[in-house]
Amino acid sequence: MTAFRVAALYKFTPLQADRPLQAQLREVCAANDVMGTLLIAPEGINGTIAGPPDGISAVLDEIRGLPGCADIDVKLSASDEQPFLRLKVRIKKEIVTLGVPEADPNRAAGIYVEPEDWNELISSPNIVTIDTRNDYEVRIGQFRGAVNPETTSFREFPDWFRKFRETRPDARIAMYCTGGIRCEKSTALARFEGMDEVFHLKGGILKYLERIPAAESLWDGDCFVFDRRVAVGHGLNESDVSICHACREPLTAADRRSPLFVEGESCAYCRAERTSIQRRGYAERHRQEALARQRGVRHVGAQYPGPGEPA
User: Which of 180, 196, 249, 291 is deepest in the core (most CB within 10 A)?
Assistant: First the structure.
């Protein structure tokens, strides 16, 4: 039996994102031993949470009772351990920060494409496939032939997209992201910028990996997720990807074979940027976390990938 169920969710819908709603969601999560992060904003709700299966069901029932959330998009997966250390329910200006208020999926967004139809679309010779995620996510996996904007923050995407449009004004575009939220907002940006037709993968990479068998897949690598599992592959099974304790970069098996990788201390992406004092501090924290695991407890300083843009 699955010990923990993980739910990645989002919904663009007008919400009264205030302290009473914040308290309501915090209370139902706490009462059902659910941890993770929920973000609420006037444009909707976004988050990744984990807990016992019955607890997740109770929280999702509560969320589906919110205005416009009856059909909220949810991606469910499993974890042997609780992938989050604490519960956070936050009120934000945006549930995923793009910084362009006019890009509103509640008014106009792209055309949904089901995972079963995605391969045919992105294989079309006149389609440009764009990955709307950040560079560290793209580095460990992406769809074949997709364009990597090489952004370090979603806020950088609008400037990149406008420059791309200058070079490819007539391109037909398909966008994707982890769970659907960033590409939904990106297609809203494209519509605001004057595009009449732009496509995006419904449910994101996670729904694609859940539904499409590996033998039929155009996805290469792993999909970064914002919790202790770090990354998942086809069938949403946990992948052999870890996190550098110093810089939080995801590390593949090849990355860990680098002579610059020292477990708990540094990797090829940060070795030159950290001082010897910093590396000793990381090594000590890693040692304390290992001791805590041996005792069967969670170390208070343990760090996992933050759920900043979880869906």
Answer: 180
Q: Does one domain contain both 28 and 79?
A: yes
Based on the domain organization, do 187 and 287 belong to the same domain?
no
23 falls within a domain: yes
Residues 133 and 184 in one domain: yes
Between helix 181-192 and helix 157-167 the angle, nearest 10°, is 50
Sign of the dihedral defined by the CA atoms of residues 237, 181, 133, 149, in that order: positive
279-305 tens-digit pLDDT: 777 777 767 776 666 666 665 554 444
Q: How far apart are CA 176 and CA 170, in angstroms?
A: 19
**Catalytic site includes residue 177:** yes
The model's pLDDT over 162-191, given as tens digits with 9 standing for 90+, comes to 999 999 988 999 999 999 999 999 999 999
User: What are the residues whose beta carbons fall under 8 Å from the beta carbon of 308, sequence distance 6 or more?
Assistant: 226
Both tokens of 129, joined, read 């496939």
How do residues 53-70 score in pLDDT, each as one tens digit? 999 999 999 999 999 999
Q: Which of 29, 69, 177, 270 is catalytic?
A: 177
Tell me the CB-side half-sphere exposure of residue 285, using CA atoms within 13 A.
Answer: 16
Examine residue 249 and state whether it is found in any structural domain, yes or no: yes
User: How many C-beta atoms lie closer than 10 Å to residue 26's C-beta?
Assistant: 15
Hey, what amino acid is at 93? K
Report DSSP letters for 238-255, one per residue: BPS-EE-TTT--EE-HHH
**What is the domain-level CATH number for residue 23?**
3.30.70.100
Contact (Cβ atoms closer than 8 angstroms) between residue 180 and residue 119: no
